[in-house]
Design brief:
Structural class: alpha/beta
Distance between the termini: 33 Å
GO biological process, one term: 'de novo' pyrimidine nucleobase biosynthetic process
Order of helices and strands: EEEEHEHEEEHEHEEEEEHEHEHH
Number of helices: 8
Number of domains: 1
Enzyme class: oxidoreductase
Keywords: Cytoplasm, Flavoprotein, FMN, Oxidoreductase, Pyrimidine biosynthesis
Subcellular location: Cytoplasm
CATH architecture: Alpha-Beta Barrel
Largest sheet: 8 strands, parallel, barrel
CATH class: Alpha Beta
CATH topology: TIM Barrel
Family: Belongs to the dihydroorotate dehydrogenase family. Type 1 subfamily.
Length: 296
């Protein structure tokens, strides 16, 4: 990767969302994580799907996407693979769907595959795969069997013990983690006495979740470090200082998502800030920051 920054799934579509913004270049990012993709096309949730909060954003898009066949056959051939790395994002409602979508991406030009295990398991009454270590491990193991590409497991913060879940995923064959996914939240219109989001609840992202994300990354790092498993740390990154904090907590790379909505040129500023920090502290490479946090 040419940069430690990763554009997060859902925030840049299938890599083309920011090409029309003057001054933006994919060359400023190390990788782009494509929009979550399922086996069949999905229309997504009813509106409202997005709601701004004082410290971030609630979203309940509902995995709207054209389906894996269309993505692999029509979208992926048009991406510029010389400019940056591309990571597919696999979502599903059953283990069989995860297998199907992962297998299709394995025979494509993407550089890696991210598994979104925060999806509800329809066969288990809607319990999210990622909130149960056993189910998380089953998804990772199943996907591991059908791809030789690097496998990144996206961990949910909405669980009791994220470190235990990470340990099980490592045993099942994950190559890396992205941490964290959104926290669940709700917005209410007091005058109408109704929920604002059409799905009633949505994922909270943005600066409000950064303290939670930092702790979760550090907890996962304790498990991942002995195995050499890297982490994409994410959750509320809006400045170079934010990115550096995630690196210190144990991240190898840093995801940028909600911040792009109000500053599409944020990545250039973060990269420059990281370079200035390294120079100021006499460090030669960004990897020297990973896990360098000193606890009291």
């Amino acid at each position: 990767m040419a940069s430690p920054l990763v554009l997060l799934s859902g925030c840049v579509g299938f890599g083309e969302e920011y090409t029309r913004v003057a001054g933006f270049s994919n060359r400023h990012v190390g990788a782009i994580c494509l929009k979550g993709t399922t086996g069949q096309a999905r229309p997504g949730n009813a509106p409202h799907r997005v709601y701004e909060t004082p410290g971030g954003m609630l979203n309940a898009i509902g995995l709207q996407n054209p389906g894996v066949d269309f993505v692999v056959d029509e979208i992926l051939p048009g991406l510029d693979y010389d400019e940056t790395r591309f990571i597919a994002n696999v979502s599903g409602s059953t283990i069989e769907e995860y297998i199907e979508v992962t297998r299709r991406f394995d025979d494509s030009l993407v550089d890696a595959i991210e598994i979104n295990i925060s999806c509800p398991n329809v066969k288990e009454g809607g319990v999210a795969f990622g909130n149960d270590p056993d189910m998380s491990a089953r998804v990772v193991a199943a996907c591991r069997k059908v791809t030789g590409k690097p496998l990144i497991t996206k961990l949910s913060p909405n669980q009791t013990d994220i470190a235990a879940n990470a340990r099980r995923c490592i045993e099942a064959g994950t190559d890396a983690f992205s941490a964290i996914n959104t926290l669940m939240g709700m917005a209410i219109d007091a005058e109408r006495r109704r929920t604002v989001i059409g799905n009633n609840q949505g994922g909270l992202s943005g600066p409000a979740i950064k303290p939670v994300a930092l702790l979760r990354v550090h907890q996962v790092y304790q498990v991942a470090k002995p195995h050499g498993v890297p982490i994409i740390g994410q959750g509320g990154v809006a400045s170079a200082t934010d990115a550096i904090e995630f690196l210190l907590a144990g991240a190898t790379a840093v995801g940028v998502g909600t911040g792009l909505f109000y500053d599409p040129l944020l990545c250039q500023k973060i990269n420059q800030g990281i370079q200035d920090y390294l120079k100021r502290h006499g460090l030669g490479h960004v990897s020297e920051l990973t896990g360098a946090l000193q606890l009291n």
